[in-house]
C-alpha cells in the first residue's frame, strides 16, 4: 500500500521568503506524484505533477517540485511567498488499482504567509 | 471547458435522513471520483465510477453509495445519516485513462444535526 507523509501541518513564512513544503511517499514502484492547493471553501486545484522524465517540474503560480527517488521525496518550493499563497497544500501519489490510478493524499499543510 | 460542478453547495440534514449529492464532470471526462474531507481524517476516497461502472471503492460502510449515468454525471447517496457524516464531499473527474490527475469541483458541505 502506498502512503504520503507531509511534514508539518502548518508552515509559516514571511512575504517574500522561500516556501518549502515537504512530502515523502512510500511506494514499491515509481509512482505518479502531485501537488494540489485548496483555498477556503473551494475544491482542490492541481499545482503540478510528476509522471516521467525531468525530475524538476514547474507548476502554476511560480511553484516547483523535485522528485528524488533515492529519498522518496517530492518537496514543493517557491522562491518568494506572496500573501495570496496562503492556503492548504496537499501532496498525492497515485498507483494503479482496479484498472485506474487512484490518488492517495497526504494530510495537508496549511501555509501561513505573514506581511 | 466548464469545470466540475456540484450541487447543492450546502446542505443541512438531520440524523437518520438520507441525502443525494450530484456532480457533473468536465465534458469528455469519463471517470468520476468522490472524496470525503474532514478535519480529523483528511481526504478519504469513497469510490470511482468509469463508464457507469464502479471501478474502485474506498473503505466506507454500505450506507455510502453512488452511481454514474450515461452522460458521465454522477450522484452519491448517503442513507441513515450520522453526525460523523458531516463533511465536505468533493467530486473529481478525469479522462479515465491516465495518471490519476484529478479535477475537483467546489464540493458540497454537508452538516448533519
Description:
The complex is a heterodimer of chains A (115) and B (113). Chain A is mainly beta and 115 residues long. Chain A is built from no helices and 11 strands. In chain A, strands 2, 4, 5, 9, 10 and 11 form a 6-stranded mixed beta sheet that branches. Chain A has a 5-stranded antiparallel beta sheet with strand order 1-3-8-7-6, with no helix packed on it. Chain B is mainly β and 113 residues long. Chain B has strands at 5-7, 10-13, 19-24, 31-38, 42-50, 53-57, 64-68, 74-78, 87-94, 103-104, 108-112. In chain B, strand 5 (42-50) and strand 6 form a beta hairpin. The mean pLDDT of chain B is 94. The chains are: A mainly beta (115), B mainly beta (113). Chain A binds chain B through residues 32, 34, 36, 41-46, 49, 51, 90, 92, 94-95, 97-108, and chain B through 4, 31, 33, 42-43, 45, 48, 50, 55-56, 90, 92, 96-107, 109.
Summarize the structure.
The complex is a heterodimer of chains A (115) and B (113). Chain A is mostly beta strands and 115 residues long.
Uncertain runs of chain B are none
Summarize the biggest pleated sheet of chain B: 7 strands, mixed
Low-confidence segments of chain A, ≥5 residues, pLDDT <50?
none
Shape category of chain B: globular
Mean pLDDT metric of chain A: 92
How many individual helices of chain B?
Answer: 0
Biggest interface, which chains?
A-B, 27 and 25 residues
Portion of residues in beta strands of chain B equals: over 45%
Report the average pLDDT across residues of chain B: 94
Structural class of chain B: mainly beta
| Percent range of helical residues of chain B | under 10%
Distance between the termini of chain A: 41 Å
> How many strands of chain A?
11
Computed CA radius of gyration of chain B, to the nearest angstrom? 13 Å
Largest sheet of chain A: 6 strands, mixed
Note the run of SSEs of chain B as H and E.
EEEEEEEEEEE
Oligomer: heterodimer
Helical proportion of chain A, percent range: under 10%
Count every helix of chain A, treating DSSP H or I runs of 4 or more residues as helices: 0
Global Rg of chain A: 14 Å
Amino acid at each position: 500500500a502506498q502512503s504520503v507523509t507531509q511534514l508539518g501541518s502548518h508552515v509559516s513564512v514571511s512575504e517574500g521568503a522561500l516556501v518549502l513544503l515537504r512530502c515523502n511517499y512510500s511506494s514499491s514502484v515509481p509512482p505518479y506524484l502531485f501537488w494540489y492547493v485548496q483555498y477556503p471553501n473551494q475544491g482542490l486545484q492541481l499545482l503540478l505533477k510528476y509522471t516521467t522524465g525531468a525530475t524538476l517540474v514547474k507548476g502554476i503560480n511560480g511553484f516547483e517540485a523535485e522528485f528524488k527517488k533515492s529519498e522518496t521525496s517530492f518537496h514543493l518550493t517557491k522562491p518568494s511567498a506572496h500573501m495570496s499563497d496562503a492556503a492548504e497544500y496537499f501532496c498525492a501519489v497515485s498507483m494503479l488499482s482496479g484498472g485506474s490510478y487512484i490518488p492517495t493524499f497526504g494530510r495537508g499543510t496549511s501555509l501561513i504567509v505573514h506581511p | 471547458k466548464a469545470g466540475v460542478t456540484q450541487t447543492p453547495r450546502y446542505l443541512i440534514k438531520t440524523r437518520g435522513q438520507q441525502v443525494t449529492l450530484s456532480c457533473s464532470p468536465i465534458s469528455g471526462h469519463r471517470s468520476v471520483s468522490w472524496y470525503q474531507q474532514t478535519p480529523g481524517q483528511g481526504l478519504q476516497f469513497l469510490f470511482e465510477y468509469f463508464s457507469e461502472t464502479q471501478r474502485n471503492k474506498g473503505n466506507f460502510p454500505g450506507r455510502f453509495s453512488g452511481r454514474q449515468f450515461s452522460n458521465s454525471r454522477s450522484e452519491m447517496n448517503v442513507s441513515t445519516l450520522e453526525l460523523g457524516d458531516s463533511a465536505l464531499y468533493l467530486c473529481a473527474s478525469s479522462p479515465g485513462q491516465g495518471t490519476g490527475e484529478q479535477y475537483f469541483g467546489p464540493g458540497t458541505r454537508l452538516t448533519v444535526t
